[in-house]
Specification:
The protein is an alpha+beta fold and 507 residues long. The chain folds into 3 domains: 162 residues, FAD/NAD(P)-binding domain (3-Layer(bba) Sandwich), CATH 3.50.50.60; 163 residues, D-Amino Acid Oxidase, subunit A, domain 2 (D-Amino Acid Oxidase, Chain A, domain 2, 2-Layer Sandwich), CATH 3.30.9.10; 97 residues, Orthogonal Bundle (Helicase, Ruva Protein, domain 3), CATH 1.10.8. The chain is built from 15 helices and 20 strands. Helix 11 crosses helix 12. The longest helix is centred in the first third of the chain and has 17 residues. Bound molecules: flavin-adenine dinucleotide.
Length: 507
């Protein structure tokens, strides 16, 4: 890091981005692509904040139709299409079933009309056509659900993503375009000249060394930490972000074949049960949070709510403690407004403080590219060349680190590198076109072909790649965000020892 610190101190940046969640990562990526000299600082690991705690959906947000946020839904559906095209290794179509029961707050006709409108709005950005389902069809698709009181349902399509990796791939793309990026570096105060922000004092949290980073413009994309950074700029600053807590449970095994969108009967909320890496993701809650973003915790009442509502639809579901593999909580950084937590808009806006610091407020993961584009346009004027409309005025071109077509089969890649086909396939699934970089490491040093995990298959080269290229610094950086092992099942002592060993020699 010492070398990095000198680099940060020496460079006069056009733009300094604070926060390495999805919004900061994408702003740095887009600005660097436009030729700006960019620095990106993240106090934890990239995506360690809200951007790895989401429901992992790239979606229009069917429920925002109820709030008549038609433009937000349309924009999100278009972004969904862009992400499906740009990062097919990380963003994949996902079929959803909505079962509707007697006594549900939203009757069957309303759900069917909502999905009809959703598909209509998507137009040519639609993933696949929806289908109204009779009671029997719902039961045929999902035999495990409660038949009593079931009225019918709807089948429709949205998209699922690996949130932590999509964020990381934006960071890596920023770096590829020349941005200087660092994790575990915290912005501790603003440097000001004549009342205007000229950079920050930053602290490398690993060496506890402080240094200065100077830039023409400073953008804070710190999600739920926004109020904190606002007060670092002006101690009396008004809060601009409302934080609401969302909790998820990861349950062992797949509860359903499709993602399920379920209307809660205890309140008007909807929540999801989603197949996720061979297991199930159940969530989420939506309650105002008093705890700060560094202290947000899963509480028993959050788990009880999700379990109660899930068991109502899947009565034979065993959600005992031994079935729960993981729980996690995140804070939604929403534009500060009154009303119930679930009703607050997911729109984004930018606030420019008198010091010139720009704060990104609100938004949802799905619209991150648009947030970045709007932000960079606002700060530096419209760019040219990189985010241009296609000839048919379709969506803008966009790519992340592993984007592009994979031109060989997993079998061929496995044969030429002396690995099992399932290992080659898993590398393609995780890294997109960059699987070749991992294979190249293994070819240079055959010892790196050693498997350190069976399910999912992981070879030692991936651990080295996580550290050398993907900037992993801790065991959790690798288990939680580079390889998502926490979602797969118990991590063996052998795997953990291999990770610790590589971290010890490489970092
Ligand atoms: C439970 C839940 C479910 C969600 N599900 C979805 C979904 O399915 N689909 C969807 O589209 N959206 C979803 N969202 C919304 C989405 O996750 C967020 O809008 C998005 O991740 C916010 O990204 P961000 O970059 O603004 O914030 P974050 O990801 O929180 O990033 C901010 C970063 O700033 C860093 N930081 C803070 N202070 C400093 C400092 N002083 N110096 C340096 N770095 C600092 C933090 O460490 C953090 O990593 C969900 C949100 C929640 C909470």
């Amino acid at each position: 890091m010492i070398r990095d610190i000198e680099r940060f101190e020496r460079t006069p940046y056009d733009l300094l981005v604070i926060g390495g969640g999805i919004n900061g990562a994408a702003i740095a990526h887009l600005a660097a692509r436009r030729g700006m000299k960019v620095a990106l600082l993240e106090k934890g690991d990239f995506a360690s904040g809200t951007s790895s705690k989401s429901t992992k959906l790239i979606h229009g947000g069917i429920r925002y139709l109820e709030n008549l946020e038609i433009d937000l839904v349309y924009e999100s559906l278009k972004e969904r299409y862009i992400q499906l095209e740009a990062a097919p290794h990380l963003v994949k179509p996902l079929p959803f079933v909505i079962p509707v029961y007697e006594g549900d707050k939203r009757p069957l006709w309303m759900m069917q009309f909502g999905v009809f409108l959703y598909d209509l709005l998507a137009g040519r950005f639609r993933v696949k056509p929806r289908k109204n389902l009779t009671r029997d069809e719902v039961l045929r698709l999902e035999p495990g659900i409660e038949p009593q009181g079931l009225k019918g349902g709807v089948l429709y399509y949205d998209a699922q993503m690996d949130d932590a990796r999509l964020c990381l791939e934006n960071v890596l793309m920023a770096a590829e375009y020349g941005a200087h990026v660092a994790n575990y570096v915290k912005a501790v105060s603003f440097v000001k000249e004549n009342g205007r922000a000229a950079g920050v004092r930053a602290c490398d949290l690993r060496s506890i060394k402080e240094f200065e980073v100077r830039a023409k413009r400073v953008i804070c994309a710190v999600g739920p930490w926004t109020n904190e950074l606002l007060r670092l700029d002006i101690p009396s600053a008004k809060k601009r972000v409302r934080t609401t807590k969302g909790v998820h449970i990861v349950s062992r095994g797949e509860i359903s074949k499709h993602a399920m969108l379920i209307g809660s009967q205890s309140d008007r909320r909807i929540f999801f049960i989603i197949p996720w890496m061979g297991n199930s993701l159940i969530g989420t809650t939506d309650t105002d949070s008093i705890a700060g973003p560094d202290d947000v915790k899963v509480e028993q009442k959050d788990i009880d709510y999700l379990m109660h509502e899930s068991r109502r639809v899947f009565p034979s579901l065993d959600l005992g403690p031994e079935k729960i593999m993981a729980t996690f909580a995140g804070l939604r950084p929403l534009v500060r407004k009154g009303g119930s937590a679930g009703k607050v808009s997911r729109r984004h806006l930018f606030y420019e403080a008198p010091s010139g610091v720009i704060f990104v407020v609100g938004g949802k993961y799905t619209t991150y590219r648009k947030v970045a584009e709007d932000c960079v346009n606002q700060v530096f004027g419209k760019g040219t060349g990189f985010f241009f409309a296609k000839k048919d005025a379709g969506p803008p071109c966009f790519s992340v680190y592993g984007s592009g077509a994979i031109t060989e089969s997993a079998e061929a890649a496995a044969a030429r590198s002396g690995l099992e086909t399932k290992v080659a396939q898993s590398l393609m699934d995780l890294y997109g076109t960059r699987y070749k970089d991992v294979l190249a490491l293994a070819q240079k040093d055959p010892a790196l072909k050693e498997k350190v995990s069976e399910n999912p298959p992981v070879i030692k080269a991936q651990l080295v790649y996580s550290v050398q290229t993907e900037m992993a610094r801790t065991v959790e950086d690798i288990t939680d965000r580079r390889l998502s092992l926490v979602f797969r099942g118990p991590i063996s002592a052998q795997t953990l020892a291999a990770i610790a060993g590589v971290l010890g020699t490489q970092s």
